[in-house]
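I hope you will forgive my troubling you with a question about protein structure. Could you please explain, in whatever detail you think fit, how the structure tokens follow from the sequence? Thank you for your consideration; the sequence and its tokens are set out here.
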Amino acid sequence: MKNSIKIFLFTLSLFMVFGLLAHVLKSEAKQILEAPQYIDFNKDWKFSQDSIFSKSISIEVPHVPRIEPLVVNDQWQGVMWYKKEFEHYSQGEEKLFLKFEGVMHESEVWLNEQYVKHHKGGYLPFTIDISNHLREGKNSVKVKVKNTDNPVIPPGKPLRDLDFNYYGGIYRDVKLITKNNVYISDPILTNKIGGGGILVHFSEITDVSAKCEINIHAVNESSKEKELYAEIILRDPDGKTLLQKSDVVSVKSKSDHGLSISFNIDKPKLWGTSSPYLHTLTTKLYSNDQIVDSVTQKVGIRKIEMNSEGFFLNEKKMYIRGTNRHQEYPYVGYAISNAANYRDAVKIKQAGFDFVRLSHYPQDESFLDACDELGLLVMNAIPGWQFYQEGEFENNSFKDIRDMVRRDRNHPSIVFWETSLNESGMTEEYMIKANKILKEELPFPDTYSAGWIDHPSFDLYIPARQHSKPPNYWMDYDKEGRKVFIAEYGDWEYYAQNAGFNQKAFKDLKEEERTSRQLREHGEKRLLQQALNFQEAANSNRQGENTIGHANWVMFDYNRGYSDDLEASGISDIFRIPKFTFYFYQSQRPPNESVKFRGLDIGGPMVKIANYWNRDSPTEVKVYSNCSEVALYLNGGLIAKKVPEKDKYSSHLKHPPFIFKIPKYVP
């Protein structure tokens, strides 16, 4: 009996010990998140035009302060307020961050009525560490937003004089991020030159191998010294996995440290415009052998090089076919979904382009994600247009360069960084410092800057076609070792006959049937003229020996602050419906060039009859195609079979249009 009692008491004590141990482990586990939490913070906001929210409405972001008319001639500007209540219950010593992807263009943030942040700039994100401002249970965040003219916030120019509209509001996503107190930093919040977050760079790239270098910035905000190391898992498109670890380092409490991982990849699958292979990179941070943070992103391995011979992608010379894009949509301005950004990228690729210039500001990161997936090369750009001012404006512009690079540096699609205030009278000191900042942030041989002024601090000269004079424009540009990319063409030179930079003095210059600014409703004669203008300019651009490519102006019609009509030189209208010019560009893509994207086959052979065929239609019928022969039929009867015929408008085009002459109109 006594032995039975002893056994019972011993067993009970074991249960108590194991129970206590389990409780300790459970408590410890509560403080260690298995992975960071990213909570969609877009819903359940209140919007008001007064700080006490006396007349508020319930909204979701992305949000614009007012639904605008199709033609925006009096955009709303002023002060607006956003407020959101949410609940929070502590899980231990976690860190919480509030990330705004885009607020136009000056914002002040309060958390639980405590002032926490003032941010200037509407095109780049900002993150706030709110860990010390939260309380158990109900919390509130309030944001004051101003989109009034401000000469110290790029682009700086008053809206009434600006060539685009910047709208207002919290117009991109908001996220609430929860992490452990040992974590991988946010590169913009951390503000470390050439560091912060995760920086990925590939070098020594061939078909046989590639070198990968990854730098990870780890922060220890716990009360104890920690043993930290990082582990990366790189999966190629076929699922092949590569695992690497960094060295273990001791990081003191309230301190930070950089971790580096370098390795070689055998037979890498290279990212390109027709084969945009993306790898999945997962970076895990370990503290005392426990995972404390994990970040997954898409990366691409590609070799870009620009030299005296031209531009090379994966050691193949290419002439870049591109366009420009404004991120504006009808009625809602910039407040568009990630899906709408993706759709724009798809339409640019469908139009036959392999490149897009972001005019004239950094655009939503979801658009860059789409470019990565589609194989669209990108010229990223800081905010700026025909305005420059020394002092605070200049310093804010320098900050834009750093923030843009820190946000976007791991996107394989970005090949050029426009560290230039577009069409602005920058000082030499500004240009030198701007490009020094870029090289500090990305100190690699394949980091290429671009500027509209022909200054040696820029790696690439990017004038608009109208910045030179007809008939040669940039065909004769010849500076040893220097390349030109024609960043804009097809519009202004056909609109105001080289009126220069005075874009407001246009009333007496417009020739309706000559301009490239044609709305879809203007009819086929004028739409065919627009297409011919772009064709002539594209053909001319290809004759410059030092020109590595060009980008037409512009992909989609858009609104301007200074004008009471749409800028209609888009090859698609503001609703994204194609004009004839869209199909001209589509025909310039080789028929054997295509890419698959989420079930879509983009590219391949194409044909388009650029004619409505009604009683008022021209009987000389133009057909755009990248095929070697086209046969045209009318009511089942063969009109003719044609091969391409070159003329003065198509002497340097690989796929000139096909011209058919029909004796008379037949329904």
Notes: The longest strand covers residues 209-220.
